[in-house]
Amino acid sequence: MRIGSPKEIKNHEYRVGLTPESAKELVMQGHEVWIETQAGAGIDANDDQYVAAGAKIVDGPDPIFAECEMVVKVKEPQSVERKKLREGQILYTYLHLAPDADQTKELLDSGVTAIAYETVTGPRGQLPLLKPMSQVAGRMSVQAGASALEKAHGGRGVLLGGVPGVMPGKVVVIGGGVVGFNAAQMAVGLGADVTILDRDPEVLEKVGTHFEARASTRFSNAANLYDAVTNADLVIGAVLIPGAAAPKLVTRDTLRDMQKGAVLVDVAIDQGGCFETSKPTTHADPTYVIDDVVHYCVANMPGAVARTSTYALNNVTLPHALRIARMGWKDALAADPHLAEGLNVHRGEVTYEAVATELGYDYRPTAELLR
Ligand SMILES: NC(=O)C1=CN([C@@H]2O[C@H](COP(=O)(O)OP(=O)(O)OC[C@H]3O[C@@H](n4cnc5c(N)ncnc54)[C@H](O)[C@@H]3O)[C@@H](O)[C@H]2O)C=CC1
Ligand SMILES: CC(=O)C(=O)O
Ligand SMILES: [Mg+2]
Q1: 0.90 exceeded by pTM
Q2: Which residues are known to be catalytic?
Q3: Which CATH number fits the domain that encloses residue 280?
Q4: Less crowded by CB within 10 Å, the N or C end of the chain?
Q5: Domain range holding 54?
């Protein structure tokens, strides 16, 4: 199969779909790999490294979109990229379609077969292709929040760890999954006063057992959320209902009752965000203020630490890429029901139920396509 990776074009996105090492694995299995010139610049992988791996360097994204059977990316295709996608082509990348009606429509119009990293499952129901980026974003969320809490950045002027004789900052993490767990680890490490809310008793048990007295757990209901959020210095939004738009757990009314200069880091923004007042921001301009509350809502947080993130991502995406390249998408999905969960759009039909429900499309089960 001919597989290509263009240079990512989302704001301050420095990751790349295929590392030189991944390109080499594909080439060693007899595939052709095309890489846009400078695609690896953000991770310090130059064109010569890709050539040494057996890949071909092409000028600009057009040859890749025009001639590759599978396009391997990181972020959802941007508008100019979507216009280049073709019927019969495989797109393998993060998509986050539920909160993105425009992208969904254009993917449907293109006829592409789109496999979303974030809905591929693992044997115990987890999301292994989302996990490494959630680890990164969870850890970053505390750094981002700590910085936003500084007065010069609009925050309350609170040092999360406090100092001897002065109380630490209060960090509230909504959602104790991968993002939430990693955020809590960082916040606990800094010495903050940490509370994690989730509605899944097993998650609360796991998190509680791990952190013991170093963090508190609370069941996520409206009353507990209100109490925790309105007393917090930093709130981290880390909920997920796979493939679906994030539930709006912190309303505009609650926001008004928060402390002046408190900070919200809405990591769940890629699924639309879990605060009513969240809207996506970029690394170039990451924060805005509503009701004296600083909002940080960057939808591609891991792009800022592109080297760590690209290698972590390739570790989990490459095995499926190799299988799709070897078997073709249909046989690869038929052989692996977890990979089949990744199919979101195929030849003009929505094949992921939560996306169809959210955006009002007919749902075409993937199993019907694989018969
Ligand atoms: N902004 C960015 O750059 C990035 C964003 N993300 C996003 O972060 C979000 C979280 O991802 P993961 O931690 O991997 O998901 P996860 O599935 O590991 O954890 C989500 C948790 O939310 C909990 N939850 C669901 N509804 C809840 C509610 N009403 N109240 C409290 N908890 C609730 C679930 O029980 C689960 O424990 C996703 O939207 C993901 O796409 C991930 C990486 C980067
Ligand atoms: C998961 C995601 O949205 C990201 O890594 O950018
Ligand atoms: Mg206020």
Answers
A1: yes
A2: 96, 270
A3: 3.40.50.720
A4: C
A5: 2-119+306-370
